[in-house]
Amino acid sequence: MTNLGVASVSDLAEATPLSRLRHLDFLRALAIVAVVLGHWFLMTVARLPDGGLTGYNALPLLEDFWWLTWLFQVMPLFFFVGGAGNGISWGRRRDDGVAAWLLGRSGRLFPPVTLLLGAMLLGVVVAQWLAVDERFLAEAVGVIILPLWFLVVYIAVIVLTPVMCWLHRRCGAGVLGVMIAAVALLDIPRVALGVEAWGYANYAFGWLVIYQAGIVWGEIAGGDSSKIRIRVHPAVLFLGSLAMLVLLTVVGPYPVPMVAVPQTTINNPSPPTLAFLALAGVQVGFAAWVAGPVDRWLTRSRFAWRATIAVNAVVMTLFLWHMVAAFLAALVMVGVGWLPDSDVGTSGWWLGRLPWMAAIAVVMAGLLVTVGRWEARGLRRGGVRRGRVRRGPGSVRRGGQPIPDSTTPERDHPAHLRRGPGSVPLSRSGPGSLTQSGVLGEQTGPTAFGTEKSGPTTARDWAGRVLTSTPVVSAAYVTAALGMMWQNSVGLGPHGPFMVPTGALILVFAAATVLWLGRLCVGRSGIIPRVRR
């Protein structure tokens, strides 16, 4: 029985309601695994004439295989699933307020990031003490922080979730049409004139389109589609988007690869182009098309569902540390003389992919067993100290431990649970706690920060209100995103004593600390009370 440090995978599987939208968990795991395997496969390490090492992406040298990026560029699928899950979660916890919801989400998102950066800083200090070549060290740090670029955008869309859900309630799926039109219009000067600056706004519009599609799908899959006026069968969306993708790339002006390649004049994902949205349409259409069969398969197959839970329990660790695993595996293979051929496209290079990826997988497994336990602990706590909650008739406990309802990268992920005859309410505490009578019973214990209690307001009450206010929590999210963007936009270092800008590190750690303190304040009482209007 696999143990995650809080509850076994078997326990989590057995406690899963029949009404859970399991395909969302499966698609999230599939997306991250595909990204990881793609990065590992293309990463190539070579020896320099002076005996040093360098690493590079082999994709620019494999032009005949650029079309495979249509299969392995699955970040649209991740944003789609994130939109569905976050939309459902926000819909259920809207009455708790924006700050409570964001703090709940931060419990599984930020601790793995700070752990990665902390380990990186320690590694840099040790490497400098050992007099490791500065250029090599800067390249290593660049590889380690590479995955953070994706979190910049994802953190931004999480903050905007309440706004996007409000727009959906007011305007329905028309929000998608407006943003797609904006992407198309902003692409015109990029394609016709080669002016990339015109497309920078598509960093927002492009990713929000995909995220918003997830919010719409979450509503449809959850059985509430009152705002959907135009219905498109998933098969039609899949086939139509595929035809559009072929026309825009093979026939039209957009490049075929869906990742950044130096030879192309336009990078489809940076910022997202109309062709990239066509790829997203292919993935969204396919995901919606197979949702029913996948849900039934995961319900029947205990092994498949347990595997899905296990991957989701450490999905952030897998994503953030997969390049660290590749770097460490490369050092080991160099040390034992097993480094594969670096001449991309040769038979030696192709044959060397198998031992190369196997070595990385072994290192990654070790990291998941050690580092991954920090993330898996968030399945129960979500990074929030547990308040006193009276157990209701629907609580589920095994061995004295509450069984969480989330196997996702962020705490209290939906609920992609529809309440129905097969659902099993699960015990949980913290900002996202359900307090309805008959589910968990009413919250007991003191009310947080003196907003509902009598007596003078103390400094602790005031600090708690500040740390759990919507402006402060939202600002912490934005500050963390800016710090990560700063780290990834300056290019290879060294940029300061830690190879990356010190100011960027301060922003990320400061934001994570504010969110941790906010979760700590919430955990002492179990809830964030809303100010009475």
**Biggest sheet record:** 2 strands, antiparallel
User: What fraction of the residues are assigned to beta strands by DSSP?
Assistant: under 5%
**Mean model confidence by pLDDT:** 80
Query: Low-confidence parts lasting 5 or more residues at pLDDT below 50?
Result: 381-454, 526-533
How many helical elements? 21
Q: How many β-strand stretches? A: 4
Describe this structure in words.
The protein has 533 residues and is an all-alpha fold. It has helices spanning 9-14, 22-42, 69-72, 75-93, 98-129, 134-145, 148-159, 161-171, 174-193, 202-221, 234-251, 274-289, 291-300, 302-313, 315-336, 347-370, 372-376, 378-381, 459-467, 470-489, 502-525; strands at residues 43-47, 53-57, 397-398, 401-402. The chain contains 21 helices and 4 strands. A hairpin with a 2-residue loop joins strand 3 (397-398) and strand 4 (401-402). It is globular.
Descriptive labels:
two-stranded antiparallel sheet, 4 strands, two-stranded antiparallel ribbon, disordered C terminus, mainly alpha, 533 residues, globular
Give me a quick take on this structure.
The chain has 21 helices and four strands. It has helices at residues 9-14, 22-42, 69-72, 75-93, 98-129, 134-145, 148-159, 161-171, 174-193, 202-221, 234-251, 274-289, 291-300, 302-313, 315-336, 347-370, 372-376, 378-381, 459-467, 470-489, 502-525, and strands spanning 43-47, 53-57, 397-398, 401-402. The radius of gyration is 23 Å and the shape is globular.
